[in-house]
Automatic annotation (TrEMBL):
The lineage of its organism: Bacteria, Candidatus Woeseibacteriota. This is Glycosyltransferase RgtA/B/C/D-like domain-containing protein. InterPro entries: RgtA/B/C-like. The keyword Magnesium does not apply. Keywords: Membrane, Transmembrane, Transmembrane helix. It comes from the Bacteria. The chain crosses the membrane at residues 13-30, 89-114, 126-143, 177-193, 199-218, 225-242, 248-267. Residues 8-138 form the Glycosyltransferase RgtA/B/C/D-like domain.
Length: 390
């Protein structure tokens, strides 16, 4: 909303724009690294096929990171101080969006430092990167939230989140993504030590660096930054091999057909006019909430956090935190304080809501006791209770 994007239609436009920019970057990268014109559009085609299955329909921070990383990679392939500066600037912008890009930046920085004879040529990348990082720190200090930034970025992730929030992939999840992620990874590691092309080295760094987005908590959407680099790697290796082994073309075509069939199977439940997050249930829930709340506030307790957007309200005390157990272990006290000092007219609660096998309501005992004491259920929509004050 701070960017002026506060409607579903506007968010959809942003999502489409990011996809278009990613496709454009993939095409321009393909023109740079692929010498075989017959393969030129294949990365875009594979990205078009695989992108929706890896939760490409979700607009998340990783969606932005995918686009910025692709363009930073494109400018890295081109010569000149201007392009080097843009590489650093876009990597810095990605760092602002999500600090899990740090391993990628570190790997790339070390590679460029040890492989570049004249270290002065690295200054444009460094300047571009530092502009974004310095802007971040100026903004943090201006707001006076340095301690919060340091805690939530570093301490929280290696303590509470490491204990409660990590999520490893299931076997079926790995099988689903194996064709497009595992094959390029194994081939790339092997080729890294056999080939001397800088482009191949860069692909390795960006591909494995982007994988870090999904290591802490595995979800398909966190693989978005790595997906285009996996595809570009695959086609780049096809180009290297097709010169000596013409039969590789047949296997490439088979992989393309397999991708179409496999992803059609994976997306079979999503084809149609289904609406997520803004469907019939949310519409009915919003209508009932507005009926009871008058002009008061609403508190979402273990359910539908975007009810604040739907009802055009702010949470009690204007304090919001995603109610994942690992967040609420730290933030429950502040949320409770907002609840007590700015009581909502309506509480919506789903007592059965779970994340990673942990019940959300039970992991907020102080808030749960307060709600049970001062609120009563007046209506139920689906599994969600509507509660008003006693």
């Amino acid at each position: 909303a701070s960017l002026g994007i506060d409607t579903v239609a506007e968010m959809r436009i942003v999502s489409y724009l990011l996809v278009v920019l990613s496709h454009l970057a993939i095409y321009k990268i393909s023109k740079t690294i692929l010498k075989n014109n017959k393969l030129l559009l294949l990365p875009n085609l594979l990205f078009l096929i695989w992108h929706p299955s890896i939760e490409g329909y979700v607009l998340w921070i990783d969606s932005f990171a995918q686009t910025t990383l692709l363009w930073s990679f494109y400018f890295l392939l081109r010569k000149g101080n201007k392009n080097s500066f843009l590489t650093g600037l876009l990597l810095g912008l990605t760092f602002l969006l999500k600090q899990t890009v740090a391993p990628l930046i570190l790997l790339l920085g070390l590679y460029l430092f040890f492989k570049t004879k004249s270290k002065k040529t690295l200054f444009p990348e460094l300047y571009g990167f530092l502009i974004c990082v310095l802007a971040l720190f100026v903004w943090i200090f201006a707001l006076g939230v340095w301690k919060d930034f340091y805690y939530w970025t570093f301490i929280f992730n290696i303590t509470t989140f490491a204990q409660m929030g990590r999520k490893t992939p299931q076997i079926m999840e790995l099988i689903k993504i194996a064709p497009v992620f595992v094959l390029p990874a194994l081939s790339l590691i092997y080729m890294f030590f056999k080939r001397t092309e800088k482009q191949l080295k860069y692909l390795l760094i960006f591909y494995f660096g982007a994988i870090f987005f999904a290591l802490a908590r595995f979800d398909y959407v966190h693989l978005q930054p790595a997906l285009p680099f996996a595809i570009l790697t695959l086609i780049y290796l096809v180009q290297l091999m097709v010169k000596k082994h013409s039969y590789i073309v047949k296997y490439t075509l088979l992989f393309l057909v397999f991708s179409i069939v496999w992803n059609a199977y994976l997306l079979r439940h999503f084809i149609g006019s289904n609406t997520y997050f803004f469907g019939r249930f949310e519409s009915q829930l919003t209508s009932e909430v507005n009926k009871y709340r008058s002009s008061g506030k609403v508190f979402a307790f273990g359910t539908t956090p975007h009810i604040y957007y739907l009802t055009k309200t702010l949470p009690p005390g204007n304090i919001f935190a995603f109610q994942f157990p690992w967040f609420m272990k730290i933030a429950e006290e502040k949320v409770y304080y907002g609840l007590v000092n700015d009581p909502p007219a309506v509480v919506i609660r789903d007592k059965n809501a779970q994340v990673s096998g942990m019940n959300l309501v039970k992991n907020m005992p102080k808030i749960s006791d307060y709600v049970n004491k001062y609120y009563k259920t007046v209506e139920v929509v689906g599994d969600t209770e509507l509660m008003v004050r006693n």
